[in-house]
Amino acid sequence: MPYDNAIAKANVPLKALNEKDRHEMLRILQEHNPNPKSALNFKNPFELLCAVVLSAQTTDIAVNKVTEELFKKAPDALAMSKLSVDEIASMIKRLGLWSNKSKHLKALAETLVSDYKGQVPKTYEDLIKLPGVGGKTANVVLNVAFNVPVIAVDTHIFRVCNRTGLCYGKNAQSVQKQLPDLIDEEFKLPAHHLLLLHGRHVCTARNPKCDECIIKHLCISFKNINK
After folding, report:
1. What span, in angstroms and rounded, lies between the C-alpha atoms of 29 and 214?
2. 9 counts as catalytic
3. Distance between CA 118 and CA 81 in Å, rounded?
C-alpha cells in the first residue's frame, strides 16, 4: 500500500509539530547537510533564473543536460535575447513543455535587457513580472542567487510538511502562506533546500525510506502508522 494511503487508513489526526520539535527537525537536517545547495548548474543569477524556468515538470538532471549547451551560447540576458525562439527550442527539446519554455526564455531575456539593464531583479515583485516566472520560481531565485531567507514550496516540500506535521495544507499555496512563521530565524535561509532535498531523496512520494530517515522520531505520520 502506498505510504500516504497507509496514513489515511491509520486515521492520522492533524496534529502539528510543536515549536520545539520543529526546531529539532531542522537542526538535525542541517547538522547532516550543513551547506545544502541547488542541484541545478549555473554560474550567475541569469543562468539560475533560466534553469528554474526550465525545471517545471521535469528533473534537475534533465535541465542540466540541456543548459550546458544553452549557457555556452547565452550566458546572459543580452546573448539570450539575440537567439531566436527556434534556436532556443532546438537546444531544450528534450524537456517537457519545451515550446512554451523557449518562448518564455526569449521573452524574459528581452524584458531583462529592456527594463533591467540585463540584470536579474532582486525583488519578488519585479521577478514575477518576467515572462514565465511565477511565485515559486521567484522565491527560488531570491533564496539561491541572492540569499534571501524565503522558501519556495514545491511538491517535495509540500509532501514533507504534510507527512511530518511541520505544516498542514491542502495545496502548496496554503503551506507557502503558513510555513515562514513556523521556521526559526536561524533556519530560514537553508530551510528551502533542507526540506526539498529530504523530500527528494528520503521522504519520497512512493516508498519513502523511513528506515533511513534521521527525523522519523519526530514525524507525526511515522509515529501513527507504527503504533
Report:
1. 8
2. no
3. 10
Same domain, 138 and 57: yes
CA distance 191 to 168: 16
List, for residues 163-186, the tens digit of each pLDDT value: 999 999 999 999 999 999 999 999
Same domain for 174 and 131?
A: no
With a threshold of 0.85, does the pTM exceed it?
yes
Catalytic pick among 136, 177, 181, 211: 136
In a domain, 40, yes or no: no
| 120 contacts 141 by C-beta, under 8 angstroms | yes
CATH, residue 126 = 1.10.340.30
> What integer pLDDT is reported at residue 227 of this predicted model?
72
Active site residue 223: no
71 and 110 both lie in a single domain: yes
The catalytically annotated residue of 101, 106, 154, 216 is: 154
